[in-house]
Amino acid sequence: MNYITIALAKGRLAKTTMGFLNEIGITCEEMEDPKTRKLIFTNEDLKLRFFLSKPSDVPTYVEYGAADMGVVGRDTILEENRKLYEVLDLGVGKCRMCVAGPAEAAELLKHHELIRVATKYPVIAKDYFYNKKHQTVEIIKLHGSVELAPIVGLSEVIVDIVETGSTLRENGLMVLEEICDLSAKIVVNQVSMKMENDRISRIINDLKRVVS
Ligand code: PRP
Hints:
Blueprint: E1 4-9, H1 12-23, E2 40-43, E3 48-53, H2 58-64, E4 69-73, H3 74-80, E5 85-89, E6 95-101, H4 105-110, E7 115-119, H5 122-132, E8 137-141, H6 148-152, E9 157-162, H7 166-170, E10 174-182, E11 184-188, H8 190-195, H9 197-211
Parallel strand pairs: 1-3, 1-4, 7-8, 7-9
Antiparallel strand pairs: 2-3, 4-11, 5-11, 6-9, 6-10
The structure holds 1-O-pyrophosphono-5-O-phosphono-alpha-D-ribofuranose (PRP).
1-O-pyrophosphono-5-O-phosphono-alpha-D-ribofuranose binds next to strand 9 and helix 7.
């Protein structure tokens, strides 16, 4: 029997996912050692392998078939835009992708002015402004703490994830427009879905019961 390989976005989501998997009888003892520096973990009985990667790399591993399945946020799936199947919403990590900025920036969005948009998500931001709003904007790619950009004058608005809204509030910014809802998803390689359909479908169906 071949291994089914599952790529997990490292961090809180990986821990939550392992919790769900434990509930359906899929465990991985090796992974529970907090001191381990291993990158890949195996459950020989179930012929399953797990690895932790940077969230933005999960769709890449899954598209190329280096992982048969992956668990990652919808923000990353949309931004990476890879060929894969999105098969199950885990209903965790719920948040929203938003356009945010100071209250004054609301006017600039209404009048379709040429504005600067700072974001970690240039693909999502471009799609929203160019294809949905038909507004020409300058996208400025940042790697984190995006809320800084409108405060220090790098951009008029940002496109970023809003969960509780406290980062915006504490920095005098607000949600100006909502782009989409986000949550964690299971993604599957398109070939693996055919070749290993029984085993992958069983995992997905078992998980459906746990998460619903
Ligand atoms: C994310 C996001 C916001 C913040 C939103 O940042 O980019 O900054 O969380 O959460 P809130 O609405 O609950 O305040 P993250 O903590 O991942 O760090 P980063 O800004 O360095 O990307």
